[in-house]
Each structure stands twice: as C-alpha cells, then as structure tokens.
Design brief:
Elements lengths: L28 H7 L9 E5 L6 H12 L2 E4 L5 H6 L5 E5 L7 H13 L3 E6 L11 H6 L4 E4 L5 H14 L6 H10 L4 H18 L5 H8 L2
Helix pairs in contact: 6-8, 8-9
Length: about 220
C-alpha cells in the first residue's frame, strides 16, 4: 500500500485539490499520467469520463493548478464565455451531457480547433455516446481522445475509505476495511454513500466502528 498521505483522491468532504491528495491507482493512473504530459498529447481534444465521485473534477483541478486554464460548466456556458476563453490556452468543460446548448458547445469546439487550444471535457459517459441532436456536433465528438476512469480496485477502495474516515476523525481497523472491500459494490457512489453512513452512525452512537456496525450499513 502506498503512503496514504500522498496521492489521495478525496470526495466532497473538505475538498482539497492539491496534487498530493490524489491517490493514483491502476483505475486512474493512465489519465493522471497523460494530464501531466501536457502539451505532448496525441490530440487537443480530451474527454475524461467516469461515474459520479470518481475524481474527474479533482483531476482537472490538479491540471489547472499546474498548467493554468479556465474551467466552465457545460450546463451554464454562455456566449460571453466564448469571448473569455480567447485569453486561455487550456479550457476545461465539466459535466457535459445532452442537456446543453448544442450550438454554443459546437462554437466552442470550433474556437478550440481554429486557435489551436486544448480542451478537457468531463462527462459521466464517453462523449461519443452522448445523444446530441446537432449532426455537426456529433461529428466533432469523434475528434476526442477518450479516457475512462475505471471502477476502483482494492487498493483505491482501501485508500478512499481510510482517508475519508480519517478526515472525519473516525478510526477504523485494517481488518474492517478488508472486510468492507470484499463486500461493497465497486462503485464510487456506493463507496461515498457507505462513508457517509459510517459518519452518520458514528456521530449518532458515539462508539467505535465495529463489525456489527459495518454489517448493519452493508445490509447484512
């Protein structure tokens, strides 16, 4: 197990977007490594997909801190934003889905292309699978390098549980974490929900976390 004071990926509890708080594992290493290779990318258009709480925003914040840029939300992008991005080389567009102004997004892609800028888009599913109505926009999605954050492996689940509970001043035995790993759904959302429930029960009972508590939360 790597040093958990290094490379820890956190959820939304007291979020800290420092590089040394991101935990690199086989689930996300390919993306982490590529971002750090900027601007030596195969394409200027990059899409990072992954389920909720998988660390997409954390990765893009690390990138912006290191290489500078501007971050926009896909659902609130405006024509004014298209003017603002002119002074930036790197543009981050977060949470892209089908509920967007497709013409604005298409215009954004054209600006990136014409001005030779770089764009990183985050989404829950790969951008090529988003059901856009605008044919030209659909065509543009084929220009993206597609990267997906994979489901967490044992190492990452261990790190997430240990670090997030530690942040909440909740101590837990390694044997309990090993027990949890064997039974919990390998979903970032489920892991986050599990941590929330432990926190809630810990505050309510004001007792150390034991096997009985873990089983209760897991529904066993």
């Amino acid at each position: 197990m790597r040093n958990l004071n290094q490379l820890i990926l956190k959820f939304d509890h007291e979020q800290n977007f420092k590089d040394d708080d991101f935990y690199v594992s086989s689930s996300n290493n390919h993306i982490y490594s590529l971002l750090n290779q900027w601007p030596r990318w195969e394409k200027n258009f990059l899409n990072i997909s992954g389920e909720k709480f998988s660390g997409k925003s954390h990765l893009t914040n690390i990138f912006i801190k290191k290489f500078k840029g501007i971050k926009l939300n896909a659902n609130s992008i405006s024509s004014d934003d298209l003017k603002i991005i002119k002074i930036h080389e790197n543009i981050i567009l977060e949470d892209l889905d089908s509920n967007v102004d497709e013409k604005l997004i298409y215009s954004l892609f054209n600006i990136i292309d014409l001005d030779n800028k770089y764009i990183i888009i985050t989404s829950q599913i790969p951008i090529v699978n988003i059901n856009f109505n605008l044919i030209d926009l659909k065509s543009r999605t084929k220009n993206f390098l597609l990267l997906n954050i994979e489901k967490p492996n044992d190492e990452l689940i261990f790190a997430l549980i240990l670090k997030n509970l530690s942040d909440r001043q909740i101590s837990i035995d390694k044997k309990l974490i090993d027990f949890i790993i064997k039974r919990i759904d390998r979903s970032y959302s489920k892991i986050f929900d599990f941590i929330y429930k432990i926190d809630e029960l810990s505050l309510k009972k004001k007792k150390p976390i034991d096997f009985k508590t873990i089983k209760e939360i897991l529904g066993e």
